[in-house]
TrEMBL record:
Organism annotation: Amycolatopsis echigonensis
Domain of life per record: Bacteria
Protein name: Uncharacterized protein
Length: 43
């Protein structure tokens, strides 16, 4: 367990941006399902 003393501080800028992008995409798809893209319209 001592191999990962602080996991939060190991985040890179790219990881943070990726997480923010995922959350923003999730919010957009939750508010407007039509904004999800062809995945939603395929079914």
């Amino acid at each position: 367990m001592s191999d990962f003393p602080e996991v939060d501080t190991s985040l890179d800028a790219e990881d943070v941006l990726a997480w923010i992008a995922l959350e923003r995409y999730a919010l957009l798809t939750a508010e407007r399902p039509s904004a999800a893209g062809p995945e939603r319209n395929a079914g």
